[in-house]
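Sequence in, structure out.
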Amino acid sequence: MSWISERIRFDRNEFSGAFGDIGTDFPLILGMIAVSDADAGSICILYGIMQCITAFLYGVPMAVQPLKAVATIVIAGNIQGDMIYTAGFIIGFIMLFLSFSGLIKIIHKIIPLVVVRGIQIGLGLSLAQIAVTKYILPNIGNYLDIFLLIMCFVLALYFMGNRKYPPAFFIFGIGIIYSIFKDYALAFSVFNDVQLHLPIFQIPKIELILPATLLLALPQIPLSLGNSILASHQIVKDYFPEKKIGIQKISYTYSFMNLVSPFFGGIPVCHGSGGLVGHYNFGARTGGSLIIYGSFFILLGLFFSRGLEHFYDFMPLSVLGVILFFESLGLLALIKHLAHSKKELYVGLIIALISAGIPYGFLISMIVGTILHYSSSYFTFFKND
């Protein structure tokens, strides 16, 4: 029992931390459901199950997230379910090959830590930009919206890191109260059509392997290597140095999730350093937070999949934006690890700006950052630390 209590706890901090990554996850999941014919119930149920499995395997809040590059392309291009499922299986197979062959360990040795830090900071910049421009600013329409936003920011600033009174309870509480006050019927419309729904079994389409690889899998792999594998491994070492979690284990579970989920209607998923930071910053320290979070999605999929679009009304987007913004601040704070060296600070900032600022930035930044790291002695700009 002591082993379980160290790895899985259910207390106020785990409940608060459980939803520390919802600002990233929920809009991407709902966006993919809205533009495709993918089964909403199956997506949520499988997403929740993968959270729970990860909780028991790791015993820490090792985030499970939608694949961001895949989700962005799906939403932008109205990609349909069969293509999504096939791409997930291909991505899982590629990661399985990298894990089983040992190539993931070689990549880990070649890519220096400063590159990983730069990618983390770049992801923080991207998330901050999304939080402000997509969630917060577009949803300020009147003085009540401004008041809600200010209250959420004040609550997050005051209670962040407080183990007795974790912040998510207050932030979500004021968001729900606001929605009920604004439009009671609309806020609770998600409960109007409750119906049991089970995952739908299917097989990825062989004829879609090539287009799914070119359109969805190849743009995703560089981001996965940088953020899902290398950066997540580093965050675990930062936050849980006593845990001996190898990079190969992270890549294997990444692979397993994507090899299994497509057969039951699940979207492609990954681990993510930003999600881990989000869960941790809002209080999570064990896998209990993931079980709570996963159970939320399982319940959504089993009973409320017909009314998922109404959850935007139940929880204002500006509130999700505040959660996402503070998740991004946790990543941006990692710049402190580069402050001891001018060379590492400059290289890290260059990597961060490339990652956040250009298409395929995570791939390009890994290449450019690694070259800069190993060749910096030739540049006067990086000398005289």
